[in-house]
């Protein structure tokens, strides 16, 4: 046990200071924090590795007031990865419907934006645009954690969609 | 037995090909009897089925691994074939591969009793890969997927997924439980099916290589390497020593990064939340070095047919050696922390046991196999250059619980770090990439790589004009779902995430 405590003490704080904070982005419809529900709509799991990296102490998205939640009922932002495989369309839409308003859709990665390398397949919808048009998109294959964090901030502060 | 139904290959007859240090042979037959007899003979010799797929020739292909090398058993079917013989009585894991062929091509596996759809979720009006405009109708399917029901007093079902409670890929798990105890687990996959077999067809080589790198993001190096080796075998391309060193180095980096992430997540799933904070910064540091030295955090597209995208310079070797030293020290301490933590070991031990007998019957390799007494590792079994020069050691355990899979991962990290150090200090340089010739006629090739989960197989048919005719890439993930289903019953529902993480199959790589 002392080894663990010694290691924790010695490690100190690894979190790097963020490029932008919530205050600088504008709060949009949400208060001080927002919850994210992630849905993998058929990704190669590369984007998931970078989402995991958001949770590590270096990027530490949670220290900026954002957390990943299990239930869509608790979520403000729907973060989608993958080209929207035909077999995930229904689950994706159901998850979105289960989220309370106000809510935002964030597309992470080239696949979620336009299908990426899987574009043109009989088994995918070539990204979110025809299913759930995203409010904010983060390009990249996969985008680095800092870019995803910036996308989350933009989704957080983005004006409501015109409707 | 008729003459044409006798098996025509045994390991003693010898393998006729050698590429990248792994002997292999391609057996083609038109006789279903011979196909079955050959598979049975190989199975009796202790062979494992790695993957089974169909191409549009049409032909059924089974990749079967023996201690001595790889056999690619191919059954050519007539153009109007409606069925093919099932290997499920020989290799139990053939079932889902054959159900996939049934879904995608409409061909019926003869002798297979379980004909429920697997990849087909009821959205397709006809099998999407069938070459015929009027394909055979797939057998009727029910509205709801018929999971196997467990009946008895107090038995109820827990459906989980496809959307899970966390940052995970989508898939469905159906638990039959009594109280907290799982009686049966059945998986239902196919949610991430992207039609990769079709996407490969007609792609130019560079585009196809990009796709091969994205079969499963965590195995980008292993998949690209298996694909590249297949291309290189098909086109008889000789790879320079320098390139082989860089590729071996990248493969070990991928292994270490994934093992670190899995170990952190396993500690976290067992209730030691600080584990994530201890392991994941190490992985993050590796990703940053990957980006600055090789151009991509996850090493996507770092291995290309004929070579690698970035060579090694003196300065890079220095950076990597420093990182190596740091990782060695950090992981040594972290291993001690895990070993000394009573609460953690209590969750790991006797949880999710995959017995050596079951692992052997299912033909499980990789980390999961080695934790259950199955001592298969391509880097060790074959004289794969340059790794064999440094005498890689086999990680082996016989208990088969989560604790075993944790031990195997630690052992492999240290071994990978040792290999990496050896590769870096004896790097022969320079790493000259080969040019890719244009084949005058269609050519086929196979590549096999020990990825971080286990064997990754790549198979290609390349056409004149350097266009991909067809390709298939498979890692061991499809087999790991069987291993997971075999090891979860008897455990608590709450231990499932821990057991699943200890196997860590890729949903994307099994759905394709």
Jot down its keywords.
heterodimer, A: 163 residues, alpha/beta, Rossmann fold, 5-stranded parallel sheet, 6 helices, globular, B: 512 residues, alpha+beta, Beta Polymerase, domain 2, Cytochrome-c3 Hydrogenase, chain B, 3-stranded antiparallel sheet, 16 helices, 15 strands
CATH topology of chain A: Rossmann fold
Q: What is the average per-residue confidence, as pLDDT of chain B, rounded to a whole number?
A: 92
Name the poorly predicted regions of chain A.
Answer: none
Give the total of domains of chain A. 1
* Spatial ordering of strands, largest sheet of chain A: 2-1-3-4-5
Helical/strand content category of chain B: alpha+beta
Note the overall shape of chain A: globular
Q: Beta-strand percentage of chain B?
A: 15-25%
Mean pLDDT metric of chain A: 88
Q: Which topology of the largest domain in chain B does CATH recognise?
A: Cytochrome-c3 Hydrogenase, chain B
Explain what the structure shows:
The complex is a heterodimer of chains A (163) and B (512). Chain A is of the alpha/beta class. Chain A has one domain (30-157): Rossmann fold (3-Layer(aba) Sandwich), CATH 3.40.50. Chain A is built from 6 helices and 5 strands. Chain A has helices at residues 2-11, 22-25, 46-55, 89-98, 110-114, 145-157, and strands spanning 34-40, 66-68, 77-81, 104-108, 136-138. Chain A has a 5-stranded parallel β-sheet, with helices on both faces. Chain A starts with a helix and ends in a 6-residue tail after the last helix. The mean pLDDT of chain A is 88. Chain B has 512 residues and is of the alpha+beta class. Chain B folds into 2 domains: 3-110, 2-Layer Sandwich (Beta Polymerase, domain 2); 196-511, Cytochrome-c3 Hydrogenase, chain B. Helices cover 39% and strands 17% of the residues of chain B. Chain B has 16 helices and 15 strands. In chain B, the strands form 5 sheets. Chain B has a 5-stranded mixed β-sheet, with helices on one face. In chain B, strands 8-9-10 form a 3-stranded antiparallel β-sheet. A 3-stranded antiparallel β-sheet of chain B has the order 13-14-15. In chain B, a hairpin with a 2-residue loop joins strand 1 and strand 2 (22-29). The longest helix of chain B is centred in the middle third of the chain and has 29 residues, at 241-269. Chain B is globular and about 60 Å long. The two termini of chain B are 39 Å apart. The interface between A and B is large, with 50 and 52 residues.
């Amino acid at each position: 046990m002392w080894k663990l405590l010694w290691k924790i003490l010695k490690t100190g704080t690894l979190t790097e200071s963020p490029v932008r904070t919530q205050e600088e982005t504008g709060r949009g419809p949400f208060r001080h924090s927002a919850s994210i529900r992630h849905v993998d709509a058929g990704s190669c799991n590369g984007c998931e590795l970078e989402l995991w990296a958001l949770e590590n102490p270096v990027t530490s998205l949670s220290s900026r007031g954002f957390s990943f939640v299990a239930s869509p009922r608790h979520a403000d932002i729907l973060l989608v990865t993958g080209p929207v495989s035909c077999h995930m369309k229904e689950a994706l839409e159901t998850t979105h419907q289960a989220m309370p308003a106000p809510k935002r859709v964030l597309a992470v990665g080239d696949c979620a934006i336009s299908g990426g390398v899987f574009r043109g397949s009989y088994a995918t919808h070539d990204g979110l645009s025809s299913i759930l048009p995203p409010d904010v998109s983060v390009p990249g294959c996969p985008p680095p954690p800092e870019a995803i964090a910036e996308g989350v901030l933009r989704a957080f502060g983005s004006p409501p969609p015109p409707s | 037995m008729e003459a044409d139904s006798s098996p025509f290959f045994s390991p003693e007859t010898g393998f006729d090909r050698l590429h990248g240090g792994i002997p292999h042979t391609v057996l083609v037959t038109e006789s279903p009897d011979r196909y079955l007899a050959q598979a049975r003979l190989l199975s009796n010799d202790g062979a494992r089925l790695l993957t089974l797929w169909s191409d549009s020739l049409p032909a059924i292909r089974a990749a079967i691994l023996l201690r001595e090398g790889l056999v690619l058993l191919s059954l050519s079917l007539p153009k109007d074939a409606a069925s093919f013989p099932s290997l499920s009585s020989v290799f139990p894991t053939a079932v889902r591969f054959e159900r996939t062929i049934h879904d995608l091509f409409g061909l019926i596996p003869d002798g297979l009793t379980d004909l429920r759809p697997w990849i087909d979720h009821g959205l397709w009006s006809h099998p999407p890969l069938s070459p015929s405009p009027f394909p055979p109708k797939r057998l009727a399917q029910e509205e709801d997927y018929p999971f196997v029901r467990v009946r008895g007093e107090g038995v109820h079902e827990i459906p989980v997924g496809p959307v899970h409670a966390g940052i995970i890929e989508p898939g469905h798990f159906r638990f039959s439980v009594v109280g907290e105890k799982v009686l049966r687990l059945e998986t239902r996959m196919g949610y991430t099916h992207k039609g990769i077999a079709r996407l490969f067809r007609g792609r130019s080589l560079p585009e196809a290589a990009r796709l091969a790198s994205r079969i499963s993001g965590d195995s980008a190096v292993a998949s690209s390497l298996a694909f590249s080796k297949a291309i290189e075998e098909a086109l008889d391309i000789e790879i320079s020593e320098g390139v082989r060193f860089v590729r071996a180095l990248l493969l070990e980096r991928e292994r270490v990064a994934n093992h670190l992430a899995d170990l952190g997540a396993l500690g976290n799933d067992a209730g030691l939340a600080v584990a994530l904070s201890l392991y994941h910064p190490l992985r993050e540091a590796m990703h940053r070095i990957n980006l600055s030295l090789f151009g991509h955090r996850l090493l996507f597209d770092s291995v290309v047919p004929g070579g690698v995208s970035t060579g090694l310079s003196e300065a890079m070797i220095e950076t990597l050696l420093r990182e190596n030293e740091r990782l060695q020290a950090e992981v040594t301490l972290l291993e001690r922390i895990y070993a000394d933590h009573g609460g953690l070991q209590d969750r790991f031990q006797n949880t999710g046991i995959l017995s050596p007998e079951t692992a052997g019957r299912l033909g499980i390799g990789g980390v999961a196999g080695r934790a259950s007494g199955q001592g298969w590792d391509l880097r060790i079994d074959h004289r794969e250059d340059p790794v064999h020069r440094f005498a890689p050691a086999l990680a082996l355990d016989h208990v088969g619980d989560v604790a075993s899979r944790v031990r195997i991962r630690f052992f492999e990290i240290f071994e990978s770090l040792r290999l990496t150090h050896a590769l870096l200090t004896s790097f022969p340089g320079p790493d000259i990439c080969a040019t890719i010739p244009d084949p005058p006629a269609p050519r086929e090739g196979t590549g096999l790589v020990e990825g971080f989960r286990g064997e990754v197989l790549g198979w290609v048919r390349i056409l004149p004009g350097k266009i991909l005719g067809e390709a298939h890439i498979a890692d061991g993930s499809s087999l790991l779902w069987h291993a997971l289903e075999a090891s979860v019953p008897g455990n608590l529902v709450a231990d499932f995430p821990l057991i699943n993480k200890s196997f860590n199959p890729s949903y994307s790589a099994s759905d394709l």
